[in-house]
Amino acid sequence: MFVVDAAGTVIHASDEFAAHLGADAAALRGRPLSDFVGDGDWPDVRGTLDAVRRASGWESRRCRCRLSAGDDGPAVGDAPAEIDIELEFAPYRGGDGGGYGDGDGDRFDSDSDANRVVGAVCREPSEPTTARLHTERDRFDHLFDLIDDAVIEFEIVGIEPVVRAVNPGFESVFGYDADEVRGESLNDFIVPPDADDEAVDFDQRTADGKANHAVVTRQTAWGRREFLYRGIPYSRGDGKQYGFSIYSDITSQRRAREHLQVLQRVLRHNLRNEMNVVLGMAEEIREATADSHVDHAAARIAAHTETLLRVSEKARTAAAVLDDQRPDEVVDATETVRAVVEPRRTRFPAATFDLDLPPSLPVSVGPKLAQALANVVENALEHTPEDVTVRIEAKRCENDATLRVSDDGDGIPEIEWAAVFADEDITQLSHGSGLGLWVVKWVVESAGGRVDYDRRDGWSTVQLTLPLADGSR
């Protein structure tokens, strides 16, 4: 054993401990314990020492490390240069019970628990990393049992994934009892006949030590469901191949997405066709009537019809953005701003555009940035006086880029910005009338960015925070 003071200095070392290090016990006293601890192990040892000193009771703590006599240690006998050992630290009290001591009559004073003298007992470690393996196994079992997704542990036998264990999530998701499937081929229970070839390919990849990732259809006790499947191979060193299959049920999400796509396409198509008919009839009425009241009513019908047609077009743009599953690409934000602004100088000749842009600003968003930025600029131009001033500033931050679009108009109505920027509940009465800001939010957030809105000193500002391209970070 040995004893260390509050500073971590060895103040007593037994002959047995010194012999383990191949050193003389007297020569070890007065040296920092860190001198004897192997490279990389000292933080763990120091943390264990600190935990013992801070503990309210007389509890002990263990850690494992490598010890040696150090470069300056006097070698004795044939002891190895470095030993792998388990240390058990505990507060140390002298044999008389009246204070801290080394057991030989010397007394070590301590002002507080934090300054406790600590003793350590050295033990031969049990099987290598046994304690650590037990801890990791406990942590894995906890995750395995409590995760909601279905998880199956299997062994590849021949070409079949034979079930060795399933978690409760598998039982609730697939409807089969653990005892029913354990020892059986997983494919016989969950793979539909028309997916046999696909399952064989996955099993072969697992046997080859390769991971799998796919959206698949699998059979449950209640019928077919769609899953996000991840296959993870592993080995135990016994010459056999094992794996984990993780299934996340995404049936509801995929069906909801499909339903939404069908509804919005049908509604948008019908809305556009019917509104074009209404618009044409309104124009015919205006041309045929001499009554000012009828003409006014027909003009209002035409104006509202055109508004609905613009909403339909915005919905088409939003759908295109959301359906675009391509990974983000690097685009130059400076070039994108100029490309969005230039055609609008002609369309809005009374407006003033004030640009403050760097020569180049590469961001990881892709071409969708142009659609998002166009919606912000259009919002600043269409809902403000003709002589509005639009300021666009772009700059590079530490890891991000910011695009700020400001205008001196009346600002975005609260009903519009609260649902988009303030996370207000979307209800029938407070959802906003347009899709433009939502497109901006969806595009920026899908790239890992953020959208903010601010109104102060007569200026409204929409700020897009975007990830810089990797090479520019």
What does this structure look like?
- GO terms for molecular function: ATP binding; protein histidine kinase activity.
- With 473 residues, the chain is an alpha+beta fold.
- It has four domains: 2-96 and 110-122, PAS domain (Beta-Lactamase, 2-Layer Sandwich), CATH 3.30.450.20; 131-251, 2-Layer Sandwich (Beta-Lactamase); 254-323; 330-467, Histidine kinase-like ATPase, C-terminal domain (Heat Shock Protein 90, 2-Layer Sandwich), CATH 3.30.565.
- It is built from 14 helices and 19 strands.
- The chain has helices at residues 15-21, 25-28, 42-54, 130-146, 168-174, 178-181, 186-190, 196-207, 251-288, 292-323, 333-347, 368-382, 414-421, 436-446; strands at residues 2-4, 10-13, 61-67, 83-91, 100-101, 107-108, 118-123, 150-157, 160-166, 212-220, 223-235, 241-249, 330-332, 352-356, 362-364, 389-396, 400-407, 450-456, 459-467.
- Helix 10 packs parallel to helix 14, helix 11 packs parallel to helix 12 (368-382) and helix 12 (368-382) packs antiparallel against helix 14 (436-446).
- It is flat and about 115 Å long.
- The two termini are 52 Å apart.
